[in-house]
Design a protein that fits this description.
The complex is a heterodimer of chains A (995) and B (414). Chain A has 995 residues and is mainly beta. Chain A is built from eight helices and 54 strands. Chain A has three domains: 106 residues, Phage tail protein beta-alpha-beta fold (3-Layer(bab) Sandwich), CATH 3.55.50; 83 residues, Carboxypeptidase-like, regulatory domain (Immunoglobulin-like, Sandwich), CATH 2.60.40.1120; 703 residues, Beta Barrel (Maltoporin, Chain A), CATH 2.40.170. Chain A has a 22-stranded antiparallel barrel. The N terminus of chain A is likely disordered. Chain B folds into two domains: 126 residues, Immunoglobulins (Immunoglobulin-like, Sandwich), CATH 2.60.40.10; 272 residues, no CATH class. Classes of the chains: A mainly beta (995), B mainly beta (414).
Chain lengths: 995, 414
């Protein structure tokens, strides 16, 4: 490397050498080019016409107009710098230099003699650092635009996983291993700022100004951003402006901003689940997505609210299918971060990524917000209180109400959520941040009994949750930084189903032991209620310590932690009252208690080493992590998680691999007894006193302790390319979900005795006895098995060209291609499709098909922002390139069958298509490929803010009301939902800007 | 009027007997006269009949020895005279067919003697052309939210003049959409109109004479022989079906087949015999309870059903296949096509050869639990003519059937 004026060794190995060289350069320059009159840096340079010039040319212009300046810099330093746009007129030298050099990574030193030293920043600086020493103390102040200090600003160094908050004077301080970090400053209601410490000359007095996060700012981010995060790979961050722009009522709404997701029709009467990286919607996949609020996972493992023990049907609640996202409101949420890739080993008990919800901390005015759409109403109020010596308290309250459709009231959903989050400085002078958070949520989801409705079918699934968490961090001289999170939650769940059963009379069957019983009949119509009272309890404790080490060009970061979680259900269980009648093929519901079910306990330990290497124009990062889980006290599971990325100039290549496990839900492990009832004999005489039914109840008690945690393996490679004009992220991944838990049907043969009347006297039940004739009746039962396999290959792309500055227009394109192959490794059984007269059916045994689903889906968003009007408009074109599902290797013919005596008879391959098995052949259309052609949908969102920060926004999904159709098996099907609109009003009360 | 007829009959009989005696006495006397005689056939309507003209009735006489036969039509008085016919014994048959009825009468062993005019009075009976067993009523819309469709029944009526036996006949629900919006016409999938297609069919038990249906009377086949007035807050709006002739019960049958019996709508009244189950695609129960518009056919007891009659029904756009049993149209004794509304003609499920039209319980669309029922109308002319209740049977249910506000079980029996 050559200096323009001075030759020097290209590599400074030691700080002393560097120092000597600096002095040398300085003296040399001063001697040779020293000027006898010193001028201020505010000398003016006139530009005679608008032009684009290189940085070197800028220096020539300056030198031509003022010979007082001397520039010293490596010869090729500005090769990669962009050209500078010069406007006609007069410009001060310091402004001009700023303009010319602002896009580069350089340090500028101006000596008193107007010698300007320019050198490349990070690499050279790094080389000057040594092991163990040279710790840097940084101190700073944060102000608002009116120079008022800002308290509770979160100051984060994400590379080191440390952070602090500003005090009431807006001051903060930290100790860093070196200065080559970025600090991020965020405060509720303000636009987050990222400051490169290396660009700051005086680290002991950093002054940062935060601007209020309003639409009058030049740049707002209203889409999900692909970010680099230490929480995992392929993370997407959705920040407050984006949350506002989609008028999100709950967490599921913001997930529509991820590649591959669409804006869903807003309706809160159906449960909402996350579906990350899968072309099919599956409970196994959704169940594997961890929802983590401020470090504490929402556990649904102990949810047992199933209506029947033999199925996972929860009526209106989600059982073993992940967190119901409707319950996560966003009134006090600063950002949502979605880990689509390999999660940090800190996160366990997941198999399909995670969603991290981060709450706001800090003083704020009352933020009152109302969302209204055709079926939903939601209001919320949030406020941050400054308690001076007692820290800061953030509170939020929201209420939502939704009906199934604008024209009916039958279905309803209502919920309220209260969140309190208190940041308390624990010890004066000690940098210990402690948070106490309490979240109370109540939801009420059901079918209302309308007075005009004769047929009563009422359902009410109530859930009241309490979550208390203590979290925080403090520095420790031995262990580095200690992070802790203790959380406990309790949910009172009450599912209530009240049905007026009209299709009686039924034989009354209430037995809870196997046996044959004489019974009578229900009336024609009767009330039947089912209460399921569950109380899932979750306790989660996590503590970890992180240290860092700096060696030459390497930064090491170690994070080690242990975690213990316990899930239990202390609810009373299922209580069925009324006449519990024989139910068709569904194993009958009876009362069951939850209390005797053992708790699900997991002990975990994890470690992650992050190694960063800094080169001249490149940077590498290697994350090596391992997690150990002891699940259910019997499975010892190791989950390696690792990722590597290498950045060269504006191009980053990355690869990651990770394994994760998700414990079975308690309802899968301990579903309780199934009751199979069948009628041996019926005698429905005209005289009610003579009526008799003979009924056999068979109790089937599944033992599911064989169920293993499901396993997920994720591999991904990708690159990020961010030249000046755009930002492109590309990721290819392969996600294998193995041993998911599925219900499969198994055949049971039960003996049915035939009864006859021995004597029938008037006015009393007849005397009956078995005739001795017994035949087997087949019944199928649902059995849980680790049979579900889902393998997804996918590509995710986000592309955002540079904002067009002149018009403030931005485009964003996100796309995902997902190809998922799903199968159940077991077999399926199905009885003859027809049987005539007194013939008997057989039960065919079929191989399960593989389903290959493809989803190719992109969204092109136009973002038009007019800061002067405080207005932003987004127009999204949802482009559905392909959505299809087809079957692989599926045969319409069984390979064996069971006869009614339970004999298993194999069918030789060559005989399977014979007409004698025609009754066992599956329908011709069973394996029909379903696919949509290309179609599009357009959504419009506009938002306008007033000077005071109040805002009004409006959305129209499917704004052109475009419902294309396509032909499927000879009939027309319609695509896209109908037009739906809604609006939001947000008012700030007591805001200082409107005082 | 009736009395005079009876008097006449008695008088003519008397004359005939006198003549007979005279002839037989005179026979032995006169051997030289030609061996020929005359036969005057006088038709008389059988008792109970009225409003039937006896003019133009074909009368044929057949000699029992040489089988020679002669035919004449009657005059306005219902009389025909065969002159100069060989003496001997004759069989006299009088027949006439009109659109409404068939007249027939026979006199055996009419002896013609030489040179005598024998007057033979033939009592002719009239048979209603719409004879046989017909479907009188199909009630499947249900009478209320509590009873739902559980009180459904089908009524079979004897339109003929003699007792008929329903033993072995089949009753089948005809499968297919009824013409609601979005429905698919059955005939667009199953185009062979030589058949009707059922998903649920049962058979009347019995060995030949166990289920008699008297002329002008009916039998009722109920889904459940249950008294729905029991425990009802509005018993007047409910049916007591314990008077049904037969009921359905399929739990034992389904389970013997290896399928699951379903107590949904399935009760067994021990005092009412059960139908024999023949075919049921879904394991539900006899009637297709999803619809208040149930097309039904009555099938001859000669029909038999095996696996070879199973056909697939798959609608356009659907991956669901129904396995239906086909019934040859020529085995169908009576059929009624009941569709959803007055404009549903293209959804006809029964070929026109069996039912030229269709009926509906409500012109604007069938409404469940209304108590509406489809009943065959009375043929007033024929009833008057034959002196008993006769129902219209033009094989066109548009003409033959009407919707009534509440089922009229056994309503014509009295």
């Amino acid at each position: 490397m050559k200096f323009k004026l001075i030759s020097a060794s290209s590599v400074f190995r030691k700080g002393i050498l560097n120092c000597i060289m600096r002095i040398f350069i300085f003296l040399f320059c001063a001697t040779m080019f020293g000027s006898n009159h010193v001028r201020s840096q505010n000398a003016e340079i006139s530009i005679n016409e608008d032009k684009m010039v290189t940085v070197d040319e800028v220096f020539k212009i300056i030198k031509a107009q003022s010979s007082d300046y001397m520039f010293i810099y490596p010869e090729k330093l500005f090769k990669s710098f962009p050209k500078v746009q010069l406007k006609k007129g007069i410009i001060k030298i310091d402004k001009l230099l700023d303009l010319a050099l602002s896009n580069g990574n350089v340090n500028i030193t101006i000596t008193d003699n107007n010698i300007i030293l320019i050198k490349e920043k990070p690499a050279n600086d790094k080389r000057t650092r040594k092991v163990y020493n040279d710790k840097v103390d940084i101190k700073g102040h944060v102000f608002d635009v009116n120079q008022q200090p800002l308290a509770d600003v979160n100051v984060i160094i994400s590379d080191l996983n440390i952070g602090t908050f500003t005090n009431i004077d807006g001051a903060f301080s930290m100790e860093l291993p070196h200065e080559n970090f970025q600090i991020k400053l965020s405060l509720i209601g303000y636009k987050a700022e990222v400051v490169d410490l290396a660009s700051i000359s005086d680290l002991s007095n950093i002054t940062i100004t935060l601007k209020e996060d309003l639409l009058s700012l030049d740049a707002v981010v209203v889409t999900a951003k692909k970010t680099e995060s230490r929480e995992g790979t392929s993370t997407y961050k959705i920040e407050s402006q984006a949350i506002k722009q989609v008028q999100a009522m709950n967490l599921s709404d913001v997930l529509s901003l991820l590649p591959g997701n669409k804006t869903e029709q807003v309706n809160l009467t159906d449960p909402k689940q996350a579906s990350i990286r899968s072309a099919v919607t599956s409970d196994a996949n959704s169940f594997g997505t961890a929802i983590i609020i401020d470090g504490a996972a929402i556990s649904t493992d102990a949810n047992m609210q199933t209506k029947n023990s033999s199925s996972l049907d929860g009526g209106k609640s989600v059982v073993a299918g992940g967190v119901d996202l409707r319950s996560i409101t966003l009134a006090n949420v600063e950002s949502v971060e979605v880990i689509a890739g390999v999660a940090s080993p800190k996160y366990g008990n997941l198999s399909s990524g995670g969603v991290l919800v981060k709450s706001k901390v800090g003083k704020s005015p009352y933020i009152v917000s109302a969302n209204v759409s055709s079926t939903n109403y939601q209001t919320s109020v949030a406020k941050g209180y400054e308690l001076n010596d007692y820290g800061v308290l953030n509170s939020d309250f929201s209420f939502a109400y939704s009906s199934g459709s604008p024209t009916e009231r039958k279905l309803f959903y209502k919920s309220f959520n209260l969140g309190l989050r208190w940041k308390l400085p624990v010890f004066e002078g000690l940098d210990w941040n402690h948070f106490t958070a309490l979240r109370i949520g109540h939801s009420d989801d059901g079918n209302r009994h309308e007075p005009e409705e004769v047929y009563k079918n009422e359902a009410d699934v109530k859930s009241t949750s309490y979550q208390l968490s203590f979290s925080g961090d403090f520095p420790s001289s031995i262990l580095g930084k200690i992070n802790y999170n203790l959380s406990g939650s309790m949910v009172n769940q009450h599912s209530f189903y009240d049905t007026y059963v009209l299709n009686g009379p039924y034989p009354i069957i209430e037995a809870i032991e196997s046996g044959t019983y004489n019974t009578t009949y229900t009336p024609n119509a009767f009330n039947q209620t089912r209460d399921i009272k569950g109380r899932p309890v979750n306790f989660n404790a996590r503590i970890d310590a992180s240290q860092y080490l700096h060696l030459e060009n390497f930064d090491f970061n170690f994070e080690t932690g242990i975690q213990y979680t316990l899930d239990d259900n202390t609810g009373s269980g299922r209580v069925a009252t009324g006449n519990i009648a024989h139910t068709q093929d569904i194993a009958g519901s009876r009362s069951a208690t939850f209390e005797k079910i053992p708790a699900s306990k997991t002990f975990s330990a994890y470690h992650q080493t992050i190694i960063k290497r800094y080169g001249t124009s490149s940077k590498q990062q290697l994350n090596l992590g391992i997690r150990y889980d002891n699940m259910l006290e019997r499975y010892n599971l190791w989950s390696p998680r690792m990722s590597f990325s290498s950045k060269h100039n504006d191009f980053t290549a990355r690869a990651a691999w990770g394994v994760s496990y998700k414990a079975p839900a308690m309802v899968q492990l301990y579903p309780g007894k199934s009751y199979i009832d069948y009628i041996n004999f019926q005698y429905y005489a005209e005289n009610p006193a003579e009526r008799l039914a003979v009924v056999t109840t068979y109790v089937y008690q599944p033992t599911n302790e064989h169920l293993k945690p499901n396993y997920s393996d994720l591999k991904e490679v990708g690159f990020d390319w961010s030249p000046d004009f755009m930002n492109l992220n590309f990721t290819y991944f392969k996600k294998d979900l193995r041993r998911g838990i599925n219900t499969t049907q198994e055949l049971l043969l039960l003996p049915k005795s035939v009864y006859e009347v021995v004597s029938a006297e008037e006015g009393v039940q007849p005397t009956v006895q078995p005739t001795g004739e017994v035949y087997n009746i087949p019944r199928t039962v649902s059995v849980m098995k680790n049979n579900y396999y889902e393998s997804t290959d996918g590509v995710e792309i986000t592309l955002s060209p540079k904002r067009i500055k002149a018009t403030n227009t931005e485009f964003n394109f996100r796309y995902s291609y997902l190809e998922t192959v799903v199968t159940d490794r077991g077999f399926s059984i199905d009885k003859s499709s027809y049987v005539v007269g007194d013939n008997t059916v057989r039960y065919g045994v079929y191989e399960n098909e593989l389903t290959k689903a493809v989803r190719s889906f992109g969204t092109l968003t136009l973002i038009q922002h007019i800061p002067s009007l405080r207005f932003v408009l987004t127009l999204s074109a949802e482009l559905n390139f392909k959505e299809s599902s087809k079957y692989i290797g599926a045969s319409l013919y069984p390979f064996a069958y069971y006869d009614t005596d339970g004999n298993y008879i194999e069918i030789p391959l060559e005989n399977r298509t014979n007409p004698e098995f025609a009754d066992l052949k599956k329908d011709e259309n069973t394996y029909t490929t379903v696919g949509t052609p290309f179609y599009s949908n357009f959504n419009l969102q506009i938002r306008k803010e007033t000077k005071q920060g109040h805002s009004f926004s409006f959305f129209a999904n499917n704004a052109p009301w475009h419902n294309p159709t396509y032909e499927y098996l000879g009939s027309r099907r319609t695509l896209n939902n109908k037009l739906s609109v809604g609006f939001n009003v947000t008012i700030l009360i007591n805001n200082k800007s409107n005082q | 009027m009736k009395d005079t007829i009876f008097k006449k009959v008695r008088l003519t009989k008397l004359i005939a007997i006198l003549l007979l005696i005279t002839v037989s006495v005179s026979c032995s006397d006169d051997d030289n006269v030609a061996n020929l005689g005359n036969l005057q056939v006088q038709l008389e309507l059988a008792s109970g009949l009225g409003d039937i003209s006896l003019e133009g009735v074909d009368v044929s006489i057949t000699n029992t020895v040489d089988n020679s036969s002669f035919s004449l039509s009657t005059d306005a008085n219902g009389s025909a005279t065969f002159s100069n016919i060989s003496v001997g014994t004759y069989t006299v048959v009088a027949t006439q067919s009109t659109d409404d009825y068939t007249l027939s009468g026979t006199a055996n062993n009419v002896v013609i003697t030489r040179q005598e005019t024998v007057v033979s009075t033939v009592v002719v009976n009239a048979d209603n052309s719409d004879g046989g067993l017909v479907i009188k009523e199909v009630y499947s819309s249900g009478s209320g939210y509590i009873t739902l469709f559980k009180d459904s029944f089908i009524e079979i009526f004897n339109n003929s003049s003699e007792t008929l036996y329903a033993d072995g006949m089949y009753i089948a629900n005809i499968f297919g959409d009824t013409g609601m919006s979005g429905d698919t016409a059955l005939s667009s999938v199953l185009t062979d109109s030589d058949y009707v297609y059922t998903d649920v069919m049962s058979q009347i038990p019995g060995t030949g004479e166990d289920y008699p249906v008297e002329p002008g009377k009916s039998i009722v086949i109920a889904l459940n022989a249950v008294n729905y007035k029991e425990g009802s807050t509005a018993p007047d709006g409910q049916l007591d079906n314990t008077d049904a002739t037969l009921e359905h019960y399929s739990i034992d049958w389904l389970e013997a087949q290896g399928r699951s019996g379903n107590s949904f709508f399935e009760l067994d009244n021990p005092s009412v015999p059960n139908m024999t189950n023949i075919y049921m695609f879904n394991e539900t129960n006899f009637f297709r309870l999803i619809t208040a518009s149930a097309s039904v056919v009555l099938v001859s007891s000669d029909a038999t059903f095996t696996d070879s009659g199973i056909v697939d029904y798959t609608e356009a756009g659907s991956t669901t296949t129904y396995k239906l049993m086909r019934i040859p149209a020529d085995q169908v004794v009576d059929a009624v096509d009941i569709l959803d509304n007055s404009g549903a003609s293209e959804f006809k499920r029964i070929p026109s050869a069996l039912d030229a039209g269709f009926t509906f319980v409500n012109a604007d669309g069938a409404i469940s639990y209304t108590g509406l029922s489809s009943r065959r109308k009375v043929d007033e002319v024929a009833s008057e003519r034959f002196g008993r209740t006769i129902l219209i049977d033009t094989n066109n249910s548009t003409v033959d059937f009407e919707a009534i506000a509440f089922p009229d079980k056994y309503g014509y029996n009295n």
